[in-house]
Amino acid sequence: MTAAPHGSPHPTHDDARPVVRALTEEDVPLFRTFEDPGLVGRVITGVGYRTVAEGGDYRPEWTWVALREGRVVARAAWWGGKDDTEPVNLNWFDVLEDDIEAGAELLRQAPFDVEYELILPAGWSEDPRTRAAAEARMEAVTRAGKKLLVERLRYRWTPDNGLPERPGRLEFRAEPDDEVILDVLRRVHSATLDAHARHAIEESGLDTAAQEELDFFHWCPSPREWWQLAYTPQGELVGLHIPAHNPGGPCIGFIGVVPEQRGHGYAYDLLVESTHFLVEHGAEFIAGATDDGNFPMAANFAKAGYPVTEKRINFV
């Protein structure tokens, strides 16, 4: 998957820079005036834009628009958890297909340098209308200096999909020591297919990549006691699984097998254990995700009864 080339057939307005600014609580309705016939982004989840004050996820000061003659031609809403003081990512970005440069200019002027997550329907590339809308956004973020990192598969399990049977090959124990968890993460990340982990290692090194993963586990609002290591009956470490809740609800926080234990299909065992654990703790649905190119993990999700519900394309 690549972003649309800069030589797009869409006309642009490069000669006149739009007015770019953040919203205030008073002019939030301006965000909703943008007409998006492609229905890309958060709209496809059925969740409209709502600020924290309205009971939603977004903050006006993290929401920016690009205007031409008072009309919204591009808009962006950065997202963070309720306790975050800076945005975690950009997950809502829209731009008119005939004014891609306005979207790029919005991203250049906004003071947030975080990952962009483009949220799409599972079959987005097969629908010409959705594909065109997605490619306009990808071209805009590319013009603004971001690069494609990975396309990811997003899953959502419900009881209707059936609870997979536990293989029964491993033993699971809670591990209270963060240093032990951190060491396992280093071992898992030392040979990984995960694009985010590989990017973090390239940028900052293995130790930092492992620490960022640990920080994410702590960021999740689920109990620390849920983190578990997996062992063979002989006591050999296999890996770890993190059943978790993120702000959206129950999720598979992390599945990792140490390199010397790979080749036995243990990632499936970890995924099934996480699923059972979350169901036993009241989960009525479970979200999961893996890279589009991580064929072994995608096969595990399919085997465990997790259907693909969305595609997410990440730019850094």
UniProtKB/TrEMBL annotation:
Which Gene3D superfamilies does the entry link to? 3.40.630.30
Matches recorded under InterPro entries: Acyl_CoA_acyltransferase (IPR016181), GNAT_dom (IPR000182)
Enumerate the CDD domains for this protein.
NAT_SF (cd04301)
Q: Which residues form the N-acetyltransferase domain?
A: 186-316
What domain of life does the UniProt record list for this protein's source?
Answer: Bacteria
The protein in question is named GNAT family N-acetyltransferase
Q: Which species?
A: Streptomyces aureus
